[in-house]
Design a protein that fits this description.
By secondary structure, the chain is an alpha+beta fold. The chain has 3 domains: about 50 residues, RNA-binding S4 domain (Structural Genomics Hypothetical 15.5 Kd Protein In mrcA-pckA Intergenic Region, Chain A); about 80 residues, Alpha-Beta Plaits, CATH 3.30.70; about 70 residues, Alpha-Beta Plaits (2-Layer Sandwich). It contains 6 helices and 15 strands. β9 and β10 form a beta hairpin. α1 packs across α2. The longest helix has 9 residues.
């Protein structure tokens, strides 16, 4: 594994952050100074230190990324780049939790822990997801109660959704399911159309407001525990 990928995987920031650490001559492998990002690390036997601290390889990772538009939540795509291209992790061992459409921004979780992913996507608890929605037309407030009661979609009644109107044409919509294009289809039901969509939270986990589009960070232990 490349040393820049190794360090980025182990919470040393983006590839650019890692390049600065290497340039500052803080990285050693088996007591040998390493300054080239392409240096190959043997995970089985090499000892990596940063600023005299031994760095153990992180087996499990849990990150949030502020997904930009134009990226698809898939391992392979011919039409759009995969969101995984924005991360240093091995794409073959990653799981995207609660995928987002190519034209949707916001909070996306990526991990290599299948049990963590399963608890969020298929666990016994209903984990809500909140979206910021900008509409083509003014939102008809009569649909607040209709969405709360549940509407018919894919031959079943949706679970209750909470709607917070922010302005005439913007709102926060909180749902506890993830049907295909659900938010857009709900707005079509309300005779409207989504022109901008961004996921703001998954359960108690909020999108870090300091993350620029395309940027990511590792979850804290407390944040990971939200989904236990």
């Amino acid at each position: 594994m490349r040393i820049d990928k190794y360090l980025a995987h182990n919470q040393f920031g983006s590839r650019n952050d890692v390049k600065k650490i290497l340039k500052d001559k803080l990285v050693y492998v088996n007591d040998e100074l390493v300054t080239k990002a392409s240096y190959q690390v043997n995970l089985d036997k090499d000892i990596v230190t940063v600023n005299d601290e031994v760095i153990e390889y992180l087996e499990k990772f849990y990150v949030m990324i502020n997904k930009p538009t134009g990226y698809i939540c898939s391992h392979h795509s011919n039409l759009y780049p995969s969101v995984l291209e924005l991360l240093p992790f091995d794409p073959d061992n990653t799981i995207m939790v609660g995928r987002l459409d190519v034209d949707t921004e916001g909070l996306l979780l990526i991990t290599n822990d299948g049990q963590f992913s399963h608890r969020i996507a298929h666990g016994k608890k209903d984990i809500t997801k909140t979206y910021f929605v900008k509409l083509r037309d003014d939102f008809n407030k009569k649909y607040i109660d209709i969405f709360k009661e549940g509407i018919l979609m894919d031959e079943s009644i949706l679970k209750p959704a909470e709607t917070e109107v922010l302005s005439n044409d913007t709102l926060l919509l909180t749902i506890s399911e993830g049907k295909y294009h659900q938010v857009k289809r709900m707005m079509h039901y309300a005779d409207n159309e989504v022109i901008y969509l961004k996921r703001m939270s998954i359960g108690k986990l909020q999108l870090d407001e300091h993350l620029e589009l395309g940027a990511y960070r590792h979850l804290t232990d407390e944040e990971i525990a939200y989904f236990d």
